Task: inverse folding
């Protein structure tokens, strides 16, 4: 996906060639030329994405959690009452350190779960206890499964195994090293460039203040890679940095950033040409739309069937108008989501002190009728907004109530009017 994106945005800045065959038969993603006065700079580049898939496979903590949830449901218990705590620590020789959880392979986890954790969960169902815990520690495997009936959400605790504490033993360095071979046969005198995009890599998501004090940042990893691999001249890091919600920021904001890291040997090229390349990459990046998801959630969505996410739960209520997600409403009417879930996601299901949180219910009780409906283009979102506007009260829409100030009717004895 990233390859097509960057081919598109760079082609808007200059003419490019795609997959031109090199002498060794390899076909890099792109090639283009920058003219700087009487000199020209030929750039050959490849686009790739980096993820933590390998680390996830080595540390199958999600699989452990899924197995515990499966056994809980099988025994009629809520998975939300369980918490898994996995031990771990630092391994590896100096300068090659990494964080490793004390878990075996998935097959071995299944055996341990069936032989040890399953009887524990069965005993919970039989005894109906409020709290209990099971601890396993043997042969380098160490975890604890806790149960608490008052716990509202399932929990999982473990060290951040995707935290890069070595400049060379991490997914970014391995991804760059793999692409170096792709460009090894580029024409003599060409500048070799790797565009590295975030495909769900925790280190790539680190902002200026992210990670632990030992975390090695993407730019530092790229610099070390360029020092060890002098055949590559520049690395372009494409990251999605997320500013989390706070008292002043009602929703998480995602920003696409580009870092351009030149190697020492890039200095052999004309400085004007390098400056133009930098400007071209930055201009190309500015044409990209603002991210609506961070890379981790985007990667999850890419693995799911169907279209992208809707904006269910979002919107606003202003006076007599209500704005909600168009796709979410469609899902509700199509029966894909229940009314209970729809209300819960919008937080309309728990009125406080007798108040009515559901804005549709509030206006309905007042006897207001819908007068207009507008669909608003969601732009870069995978959704549109639908706004309902309500007009003046309609006597046909409210209950009959007696008005004390109404004059008696000779025929009916009193006057009733539909009002709130």
Result:
């Amino acid at each position: 996906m990233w390859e097509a994106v960057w081919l598109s945005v760079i082609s808007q800045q200059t003419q490019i060639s795609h997959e031109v065959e090199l002498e060794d038969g390899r076909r890099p993603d792109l090639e283009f030329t920058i003219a700087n006065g009487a000199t020209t700079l030929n750039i050959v580049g490849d686009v790739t994405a980096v993820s933590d898939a390998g680390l996830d496979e080595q540390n199958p903590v999600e699989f452990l959690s899924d197995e515990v949830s499966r056994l809980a449901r099988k025994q009629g218990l809520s998975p939300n009452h369980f918490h898994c705590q996995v031990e771990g620590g630092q391994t590896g020789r100096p300068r090659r350190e990494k964080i490793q959880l004390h878990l075996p392979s998935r097959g071995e986890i299944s055996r341990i779960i069936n032989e040890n954790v399953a009887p524990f969960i069965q005993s919970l169902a039989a005894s109906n206890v409020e709290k209990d815990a099971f601890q396993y520690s043997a042969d380098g495997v160490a975890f604890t499964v806790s149960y608490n009936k008052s716990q509202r959400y399932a929990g999982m605790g473990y060290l951040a195994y995707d935290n890069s504490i070595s400049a060379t033993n991490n997914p970014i360095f391995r991804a760059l090293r793999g692409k170096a071979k792709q460009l090894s046969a580029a024409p003599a005198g060409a500048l070799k460039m790797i565009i590295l995009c975030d495909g769900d890599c925790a280190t790539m998501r680190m902002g200026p203040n992210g990670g632990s004090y030992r975390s090695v940042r993407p730019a530092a990893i790229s610099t070390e890679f360029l020092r060890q691999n002098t055949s590559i001249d520049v690395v372009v890091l494409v990251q999605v940095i997320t500013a989390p919600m706070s008292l002043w920021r009602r929703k998480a904001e995602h920003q696409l950033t580009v870092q351009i890291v030149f190697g020492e040997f890039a200095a052999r090229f004309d400085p004007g040409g390098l400056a133009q390349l930098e400007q071209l990459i930055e201009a190309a990046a500015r044409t990209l739309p603002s991210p609506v998801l961070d890379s981790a959630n985007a990667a999850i969505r890419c693995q799911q069937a169907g279209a992208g996410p809707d904006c269910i739960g979002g919107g606003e209520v202003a006076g007599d108008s209500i704005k909600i997600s168009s796709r979410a409403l469609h899902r509700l009417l199509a029966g894909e989501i229940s009314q209970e879930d729809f209300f819960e996601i919008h937080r309309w299901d728990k009125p406080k002190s007798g108040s009515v949180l559901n804005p549709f219910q509030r206006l309905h009780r007042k006897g207001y009728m819908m007068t207009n409906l507008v669909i608003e283009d969601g732009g870069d979102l995978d959704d549109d907004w639908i706004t309902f506007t309500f007009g003046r009260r309609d006597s046909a829409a409210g209950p009959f109530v007696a008005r004390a100030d109404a004059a008696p009717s000779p025929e009916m004895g009193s006057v009733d009017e539909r009002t709130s």
Notes: The radius of gyration is 30 Å. Residues 356 and 362 are 6 Å apart (CA to CA). Residues 56-157 form one domain.
